[in-house]
TrEMBL record:
Pfam families: PEP_mutase
Protein name: Isocitrate lyase/PEP mutase family protein
Keywords, sorted A to Z: Lyase
Molecular function terms, GO-annotated: oxo-acid-lyase activity
Alphabetical list of SUPFAM superfamilies matching this protein: Phosphoenolpyruvate/pyruvate domain
Biological source species: Allopusillimonas soli
């Protein structure tokens, strides 16, 4: 049974106050969202890369609009019971845009928004060519975001991409400034070693998020090690869509063979179970209740 946005935010806030690492799988469409929602995670993460790819078939390079992303975030929130933190890119413009974005995402039902300090148009954090805005400008964005939300339970994740172009010291300096400006969770993107990860986790006073991208710039460590370091949230934004891409490529290639039915055995989700996952049971019950004799 779906819960209200307020109850989702309150449950996430309560979970953040408890010890232990929160693990959030990346969701990128409503199939991935529904699957993840039923598995007992404390939190889901709406990946910008995966959402833009699945919705528009485009790279995560600032091509999706606020309207695009708000529509997806709202649909994910309405279709799930688990709290969601959604990628809000750079806030889609200046300070007025940031305030509008925060209000829209909060009204859309997600539990929090991620904002980053890249120049517009932004790029995926594990790709080259990223540039960041002055720290003072991002501080103002975080202040505006904090003021714009109607509830303090709506979380603001402040991400800095400064590590790649300006070094780890500058990235940590920015993260600390964003914390003072009102961010609830801090996100230093693309550290490049286990030693850097440990330093990030130990240097910041607010909950710290680690981004685990298979094949990206950051080593993907065991959850127990991340917890030991002191990280509070571990997101896995790419795992789902990379797994989907691999699986689809495999089964689509099987369709080209003469023995496709036999080769597909054991590779597919059960059709009846998938229909139930998508909500057909409610349709069947409705039809029974309103059937004419």
């Amino acid at each position: 049974m779906l819960t209200t946005p307020a109850s989702k935010r309150q449950s996430l806030a309560a979970r953040l106050a408890k010890p232990g690492l929160l693990v959030a799988p990346g969701i990128f469409d409503l199939i991935s969202a529904r699957l993840a929602d039923r598995m007992g995670f404390d939190l889901l993460y709406m990946t910008g890369y995966g959402t833009v790819a699945s919705y528009l078939g485009l790279p995560d390079a600032g091509l999706a609009t606020y309207t695009d992303m708000l529509a997806r975030a709202s649909a994910f929130a309405q279709g799930t019971s688990t709290p969601i933190i959604a990628d809000g890119d750079t806030g889609y413009g200046g300070l007025l845009n940031v305030a509008h974005t925060v209000r829209g995402y909060e009204a859309g039902g997600v539990a929090g928004i991620q904002l980053e300090d890249q120049e517009f148009p932004k790029k995926c954090g594990h790709t080259p060519g990223r540039r960041v805005i002055p720290m003072e400008d991002m501080v103002e964005k975080i202040r505006v975001a904090s003021d714009a939300r109607s509830s303090s339970d709506f979380l603001i994740v402040a991400r800095t991409d400064a590590r790649t172009s300006l070094g780890l010291d500058e990235a940590l300096r920015r993260a600390q400034a964003y914390a003072q400006a009102g961010a609830d969770i801090l996100f230093v993107e693309s550290p490049e070693s286990e030693e850097e990860l440990a330093r990030i986790a130990s240097s910041l006073d607010k909950p710290v998020l680690v981004n685990n991208v298979e094949g990206g710039r950051t080593p993907v460590l065991p959850k127990s090690r991340l917890d030991q370091m002191g990280f509070k949230l571990a997101i896995y934004p790419a795992t789902g869509f990379l797994a989907m891409g691999k699986a689809l490529e495999e089964v689509y290639s099987m369709l080209q063979r003469d023995d496709a039915p036999r080769s597909l055995e054991g590779k597919l989700y059960d059709f009846e179970a998938f229909s139930k996952l998508m909500g057909f049971e409610q349709v069947w019950e409705f039809d029974k209740a309103h059937a004419r004799d």
